Amino acid sequence: MKPLPLTVRLAAGLAVTAVEQARKLPGQLAGLPVTVVSEALQLSMRLQQRVTELAIKGDDALSVLRPVEQEPEWATFDEDEGGAAPAADAGAGLDADDPWSAEEQALAAEPPAVLPNYDELSLAQLRARLRTLSAEDLEELLAHERTHAARPEFTGMLTRRIANLENQ
């Protein structure tokens, strides 16, 4: 017996597959809305991830052209309104002849008792706690900052807050 042509065999295979799928359809209809919603959500999330990845790559590429600001120029706070002088030099009071004195002082000093986690605080977190601190506490934090990290934005903010308290 001669085999049937390929197109006839393909058509028969498609018909059998269609019948099998039609028999499974009533069981799959109950879960179909959930499946469609799930697929749509997955697609949406993948799209959002891809857009975010592209934005991050763009930020990295453009960061060379425009440095990131620590504090935007439009951001003003009550502590910034006082016209206090800029923070003093971070190395003030250290022995200029001994290059190891700064390191010894940093290793020997303990975190300030006022805020034991001071070194881990961000600028915004510190700003939120400033109003609860006394002038003595602020002086202690300023001395600690000057002998340790000497971050200009931190020393400036502490200096301005101390000046504001003295003016009140």
How would you describe this protein?
The protein has 2 domains: 6-62, no CATH class; 78-167, no CATH class. Helix content is 59%, strand content 0%. The chain is built from 6 helices and no strands. It has helices spanning 6-29, 32-62, 101-108, 123-129, 135-147, 152-167. Residues 70-82 have a biased composition (Acidic residues). This is DUF8129 domain-containing protein. Residues 119-165 form the DUF8129 domain.
The 3D shape can be described as elongated
In total, the number of strands is: 0
Quote the beta fraction. Answer: under 5%
Tally of helical runs:
6
Q: Could you give the order of the helices and strands? A: HHHHHH
> Ranges with pLDDT <50 over ≥5 residues?
84-93
Sketch the major β-sheet.
none
What is the residue-averaged pLDDT?
Answer: 81
Gyration radius, to the nearest Å? 34 Å
Helix residue percentage? 55-70%
Task: Give the tally of structural domains.
Answer: 2
Question: What structural class is derived from the secondary structure elements?
Answer: mainly alpha
Distance between the termini: 109 Å
Helices and strands in order, then pairings?
Layout: H1 6-29, H2 32-62, H3 101-108, H4 123-129, H5 135-147, H6 152-167
Helix pairs in contact: 5-6
Structure summarized in a few sentences:
The protein is mainly α and 168 residues long.
Task: Provide key terms for this protein.
168 residues; 2 domains; mainly alpha; elongated; 6 helices; LipDrop-assoc; DUF8129; 59% helix
